[in-house]
Amino acid sequence: APAAKMSADEKKAAQKAKKEKAAADKKMKQEQAAADKKAKRAYRNGEYARAIKFFRRASEDGNIVADWYLGHMYRMGRGVRRDDAMAYSYYGRVADLYEPDEADQNRLRITVDAMVRIADYQRTGVSSAGIKKNSGAAARTYLKVATAYGHPAAQYALGVMNIRGDGVKANPQQGLKWLIAAARKRYAPAE
């Protein structure tokens, strides 16, 4: 059946509703940005308990920057008891949203970093957190990130893995090339 035509009043009501929704969306984004600033400021000031409260709220709203911070806080034990399973979970949520053509450079940076953190956990495994060692998967992720983005931690990890033959066929020459590439980026463990 053909759609019924809208009356002039119905069109006005629809336009009004659309404007109200846009205004509400804009207000919500502004509130989220303000909360993000508060969370980041608290984090920088070492007020981790306050920061985690803001980040958890933002995470519940699907904010991947908050998820990355929460992963970092759980991995480092900042404001919370160190918990590799929680860190892995938060980093996984961020890494799952990886989009190679991402226009937002900050979002791309944190998704790539989260991928490296996931690979770090896969490379070593953390039995207490239920994370099984999977050096092959870690090597594939490091290779993707090192070649596409020149991430120095991924280059370093590839260098070590190539020298040891961990997850890849041992290739000390290739390993040395990766370590040199990481050192050129001033990555401290490679220097």
Structure description:
This protein is mainly α. Helix 4 packs across helix 5 (105-124). It is 71% helix and 0% strand. The model has no long low-confidence stretch (mean pLDDT 89). The chain has helices at 8-44, 48-60, 64-76, 84-95, 105-124, 135-149, 152-164, 172-184. It is built from eight helices and no strands.
Mean pLDDT, all residues: 89
Question: In this structure, how is the largest beta sheet organized?
Answer: none
How many separate helices? 8
Strand content: under 5%
Question: Could you outline the blueprint of secondary structure elements for this entry?
Answer:
Layout lengths: L7 H37 L3 H13 L3 H13 L7 H12 L9 H20 L10 H15 L2 H13 L7 H13 L7
Helix pairs in contact: 1-2, 2-3, 3-4, 4-5, 5-6, 6-7, 7-8
Attribute tags:
191 residues; mainly alpha; 8 helices; 71% helix; 0% strand
Quick structural summary:
The chain is mainly alpha-helical. It has helices at 8-44, 48-60, 64-76, 84-95, 105-124, 135-149, 152-164, 172-184.
